[in-house]
Amino acid sequence: MDKRIIEVGYGSVAKVKIGSRLPLVFIGGPCAIESRDHAFKMAEAIDLICRRMGVPWIYKSCYDKDCRSSQDSFHGLGADHGLRILADIREEFGVPVVSDFSEPIWGPATGEVCDMVQVPAYLCRQTSILRAAALTNRPVHLKKGQFMSPWNMKNSVRKIEANGNHQILLADRGTFFGYNMLVNDMTCFPIMARMGYPVCFDATHSIQLPTSMGNVSGGQREFIPHLVRAAAGCGINALFMEVHDDPDNALSDANTVLDIQYLENILGQAKAIHEMRLELLEKYGEDNAHLQK
């Protein structure tokens, strides 16, 4: 098994390492940047929790949500304003930041500010987006599309590698199960890990009910703890959850974002399971090593 580790962070920001046999990393924040004040409020709250728990973390929030179901939904503050806020957060809290981007032309500016760039799930096969993400020379958080099998993610990985970037984090966010429904296949984590890169579970998007409310996606956030515990036991290296202090009034993904009051509880469970798994690996060796090709 490849022990590849990616490092997220540049300049004065301390690097966060994600990979095999390392502590579980948390990636989170509001789905979209709603305002400067709200972004800082959320960053401060998450930072306090993660520092108290000893969990390395990366702040995530998007400046432009180009995949909203309705054209009337809140799409964000735009690249210029949003990236200035992310730059100020990384400086204030000394924490790496990540945002996705949906147009190749946004890649250079996103990579100039962000410590990691994210490829949206719907665009995980889009060659121009993958090339732009790779060329930022930042680690790439690559979401597995809801329409993709875990083994076919190798083709997207190869597109990034072909453009000289070998810092990739592979994430699952559920797979389409008929209309307006997602299901998680936990075997995707060991399958994607065989590509030689660390893996991540996107818990809050996994409980989404895509466009189930007409022009808005619903969600079943009561299942977040169950799925997080299962994913932590299956060998994830990072946990992604969008969090908010007032989910019902969140401007993006109001039906799926986790109320921040539950973050410490769920993150604590994930951390405990992750550490127990590492202890078991140390004692008994790699999971099903004799079955791996």
Task: Give a structural overview.
- The protein is globular.
- The chain has one domain: Aldolase class I (TIM Barrel), CATH 3.20.20.70.
- The termini are close together.
- Strands 3-4-5-6-7-8-11-14 form an eight-stranded parallel β-barrel, surrounded by six helices. A two-stranded antiparallel ribbon has the order 1-2. The protein has a two-stranded antiparallel ribbon with strand order 9-10.
- The chain is built from nine helices and 15 strands.
- Helix 1 runs parallel beside helix 2 (79-93).
- With 293 residues, the protein is of the alpha/beta class.
Low-confidence stretches: 212-216
Using the alpha-carbon principal axes, give the shape: globular
Class computed from helices, strands and strand pairing: alpha/beta
Query: How do the helices and strands follow one another from N- to C-terminus?
Result: EEEHEHEHEHEHEEEHEHEEHEEH
Beginning-to-end CA distance, first to last residue: 9 Å
From the structure provided, what is the oligomeric state, counting identical versus distinct chains? single chain
| Cα gyration radius (Å) | 17 Å
Number of helices: 9
Query: Can you identify the CATH class?
Result: Alpha Beta
Biggest sheet, spatial arrangement of strands: 3-4-5-6-7-8-11-14
| Secondary structure: helix percent | 25-40%
Strand content: 15-25%
Q: Could you state the CATH homologous superfamily?
A: Aldolase class I
E-strand count: 15
What would the CATH topology be? TIM Barrel
Q: How many structural domains are formed by the residues?
A: 1
Q: Return the average pLDDT rounded to an integer.
A: 92
Largest sheet: 8 strands, parallel, barrel
Shape-level CATH architecture: Alpha-Beta Barrel
